[in-house]
From TrEMBL:
PANTHER family: FLAGELLAR MOTOR SWITCH PROTEIN FLIM (PTHR30034), YOP PROTEINS TRANSLOCATION PROTEIN Q (PTHR30034:SF6). Belongs to the FliM family. Keywords: Bacterial flagellum, Cell membrane, Cell projection, Chemotaxis, Cilium, Flagellar rotation, Flagellum, Membrane. This is Flagellar motor switch protein FliM. It comes from Paenibacillus aurantius. The keyword Repressor does not apply. GO terms for cellular component: bacterial-type flagellum basal body; plasma membrane. SUPFAM superfamilies: CheC-like, Surface presentation of antigens (SPOA). One of its GO terms (biological process) is bacterial-type flagellum-dependent swarming motility.
Length: 332
C-alpha cells in the first residue's frame, strides 16, 4: 500500500531539502537500490489469489448448504459463514487446533488423498446435546466420546459431506466418503509437516453456542484440478456431450412434435362488399399463374415447392422441390 503524506509532512520534507538537512541525490539512490523481500520456504505459496477466491466462492455455497442441513437435523437456529480462506503449512494447522477435537477424515473420489473436516468440541457437543434431546448446550468440560456418541457424530458429519459434494458441482463431481473419526490431532496424518494446505474456516453458531469448523485440503490432493479453480474456467460454460440414451430420447420427442403445414394456392384482395357477396360457383382470381409451383410452409417458413393434384379422389399436393434457406435481408 502506498503511504500518502499529509500537507504538514510535505512542508517539512520541502523545508529539510531547502535547508540541506536532506540530500535529494541520497533519496534517489535509496529508491534505485534493489529491494529484497523475505521468502519463507516453510510457508511456500502454492495457491494463487485467484485459486483462493475460487475456493472462497465454492465454500460460501458449502456454508449455505451446511446451514440448511444442520438447521433441519438439529431443529434449531444454525448460522454458518466463511470467515477466512488461507494457505499455511500442515504442521501449523495441527498446532492451531485443540488437543481434543472432532476430526472427520474423508476422501473425495476421483481426487486422491485425504482431507479433514475439523469441528470445534464446543460446536460438536452442542450438536450432540441437541440430537439427544437437550437444549443444544456444550458441556463445561469436554470428555472423551463414548461409542454411542462416536456413532452419532459419524452419522451426522458423514451426511454433512453431501453438502460438500453439492458445493463442488460447479468445478467437478466429487464423491466424499467418511473414512474415520478421530479426536486427537496427533493420531491424524494426512500430509507431511511442511506440505501446504488450504484452510477454509467457517464460523458456526448453534443457539447460544459458537465455534469454528475448519476444512483442511492438502495442496497435493487438489493439485490435479488446480486449473479448474481459475475464474475463467469457472465462468465458461462447457458443452456437455449427450449420452446415446439422451440423444435417442431427444430424437423421439422431436419426432412427436406437431407443426402446421400449409400449401398456399395464392393471394387475392377483395373488398368487404365483394367478400360478403360471394356465392357458390363464384371464381376468385389469384395472383399466381396455374403453372407456377405452390409454396408449402412449415410453420411460417417456406420449406418446399409443390404442384396441386388429386390422389384417390382427394385433393393432394406433390412436393417438387426443397427450398434452401437464404439469409434474410433486413430493411435498413
Amino acid at each position: 500500500m502506498v503511504d500518502v503524506l499529509s500537507q504538514n509532512e510535505i512542508d517539512a520534507l520541502l523545508a529539510a531539502l531547502s535547508s540541506g538537512e536532506m540530500d535529494a541525490e541520497e533519496l534517489k539512490k535509496e529508491d534505485t537500490e534493489k529491494k529484497v523481500r523475505v521468502y519463507d520456504f516453510k510457508r511456500a505459496t502454492r495457491f494463487s489469489k485467484d485459486h483462493l477466491r475460487s475456493l472462497t466462492r465454492i465454500h460460501e455455497n458449502f456454508a449455505r448448504f451446511l446451514t440448511t442441513y444442520f438447521s433441519t437435523q438439529l431443529r434449531t437456529f444454525v448460522q454458518i459463514s466463511v470467515v477466512q480462506v488461507e494457505q499455511l503449512p500442515y504442521d501449523e494447522f495441527i498446532r492451531s487446533i485443540p488437543k481434543m477435537t472432532i476430526l472427520n477424515i474423508f476422501e473425495a473420489e476421483p481426487l486422491e488423498g485425504r482431507m479433514v473436516l475439523e469441528v470445534n468440541p464446543n460446536v460438536a457437543f452442542a450438536m450432540l446435546d441437541r440430537l439427544l434431546g437437550g437444549m443444544g448446550v456444550s458441556p463445561s468440560k469436554i470428555h472423551a466420546l463414548t461409542e454411542i456418541e462416536t456413532m452419532i457424530m459419524e452419522r451426522i458429519f458423514s451426511r454433512a459431506l453431501n453438502s460438500l459434494q453439492e458445493a463442488w458441482k460447479t468445478v467437478m463431481d466429487l464423491t466424499p466418503r467418511m473414512e474415520a473419526l478421530e479426536t486427537n490431532p496427533q493420531f491424524m496424518q494426512i500430509a507431511s509437516a511442511n506440505d501446504t494446505i488450504a484452510l477454509i474456516s467457517l464460523s458456526t453458531k448453534i443457539g447460544d453456542t459458537s465455534g469454528m469448523i475448519n476444512l483442511c485440503i492438502p495442496h497435493v490432493v487438489i493439485e490435479p484440478i488446480m486449473q479448474r479453480l481459475s475464474v475463467h474456467h469457472m465462468f465458461v460454460t462447457h458443452k456437455k456431450s449427450k449420452t446415446p440414451e439422451e440423444s435417442e430420447a431427444l430424437h423421439a420427442r422431436v419426432n412427436m412434435a406437431k407443426l402446421p403445414i400449409i400449401a398456399e394456392l395464392g393471394e387475392s384482395h377483395l373488398s368487404v362488399r365483394e367478400f360478403l357477396g360471394l356465392a357458390p360457383g363464384d371464381v376468385i382470381s389469384l395472383n399466381k399463374p396455374v403453372e407456377e409451383g405452390l409454396h408449402i410452409k412449415v410453420g411460417d417458413k417456406i420449406k418446399y415447392m409443390g404442384s396441386p393434384g388429386t390422389l384417390k379422389g382427394k385433393v393432394a399436393i406433390q412436393i417438387t422441390d426443397i427450398v434452401t434457406e437464404e439469409v434474410e435481408e433486413h430493411d435498413e
